[in-house]
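Before a colleague's protein record goes any further, I have to sign it off. Thanks in advance; the entry in question is below:
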Amino acid sequence: MALLDDLSGYEFEDLMVDVFRHRGYENVSQSARTADEGRDVLMEEVVDGRRRAVVVECKHTDTVSRPVVQKLHSAVATYDYDGPKRGMVATTGRFTGPAREYAQELGTESDGGVALLDGSDLRDIGEEIGMDLYNGRIEILCDEALAPFPPNTGPAAPVFDVVREIENIDPATIPTPETSVTFQPMLAISASTSATFETSVGVIHSLNETTDLVVHAADDKPRVAHGERSALVTNRAAPHIDLEDRRTELDATVAAVERERFGRTETAYKEWAVDRLRQAHTTTVHYTGDNNVDYEKTCTPSRSDVSIRSIDPVYLPRVNSRVELGEYAYRYAFDAAGSARSTTRNDFRECVHCGADDVDATYTYCANCGSINCDDHIKTERVENEPVCTGCAVTERFALRRKYFYDEANREAFREEYAAMAVHEKAMENVPLAVGSVLALLVACIVVASSVGVL
């Protein structure tokens, strides 16, 4: 079978770790390259509620004979495990007749025997898990997504929540938002790095680290997600949905649904993660040699020092809603995991006139034109005493002070009202000016009185 011809024996073991993990085995790990005692891969399975160890020997050869099966059987017997255990030999080639006969003599898997997987079996497994075993590429097959909306609510609920923070607007009066959802491919990768660096003076550096990464996987350039977005993906309590089961419901609820493709195969993401972790764990160590001379050495873990423990794909919904209010359209976009959200765009918290977006500021809605405004761009309409923005208001000075009106008709109505006012009423249209005038008059009276000797 022309299978994985370009891989080394160790790379074949590394690939089989992925194969077994995709088949549902747990705690799958690759043994150290040295002194593995015939145990290339160690993993566990749960059968009838009981956990059992599986010890695997991987042979990237044309034929596997009886001694290989015998060696593995001994390795299983000497494996220190508190519970039942069995063996397995996986090969890219085929087993000889004596090898199969010996495996049959050892009994079934439940008896602690040794299972045999040849190249033909691996080909069938590859089709089962969506993996091209001819070149080692694992296609990412995923229908699982984080829930785009809180339970028992529709796509409008998050928009209404945001609108409640705006002054002078009732969420019940806004039109139904036009909402679309884009499901973004993400990967939660867990890896361990274990390495020891030695010189003639002994161990100069060692590390044993576990790293969890959340990765954007929508294109060919993976990016690590941080902060709130990473927390959404790794939150174990976040509700999930099956995209295939819910597609009809989503199509009926929102205007558009898009699912982005994973940009690489799982194999490529695994290689990317290994390279990234090798770089992250590279360090320069200073030490003193046997001759009392100071040296420095750059310690970089090898590829075999990094073990990818799991790669879990999931779709993260990006919800994008659009609402038209008067002359303006507002967008609210966020990444979602049920009730939890990470906002990426919120036009409802931004002044349409100056772009101010202070999270602690107060924003007010102008019902006259539909704008949302910061305190510097919202005024009180003189006739109605309701908010009006500086962008749409009609203005005119009365008592030397600028007044704001919804329209020409309101301004004309106030002109008539102002013309009929008494002098003191007109003065009160500019209270600071009126107060200042009175104070100035008092000061003048005092000065005059003092000059004529009254005071």
Q: What stands out?
A: The radius of gyration is 37 Å.
